[in-house]
Give the backbone structure.
Amino acid sequence: MEAAAISVVLWCCGTPLAWAWNGVKKQCLYCIKYKENAEAFESEATEFLEKVQRLEDGVQTSGSRSIKEKLQKQLE
């Protein structure tokens, strides 16, 4: 009798439970994927900012050299 009751409950509630679980599973996977994407973006953004900083440093260094050279030529 219990087996019949369980099968009736599963038959009646199986689809709604599966539907509810699919929604929960989808949201959990979305959160996990969102976190992975956010971490990847942060890593790439940090790398990009480091490249920009190196470029700025390079421009300032080359600019200061050319200015120093011009000043020395004018002073001579």
In short: The longest helix spans residues 2-75. The chain has a mean pLDDT of 77.
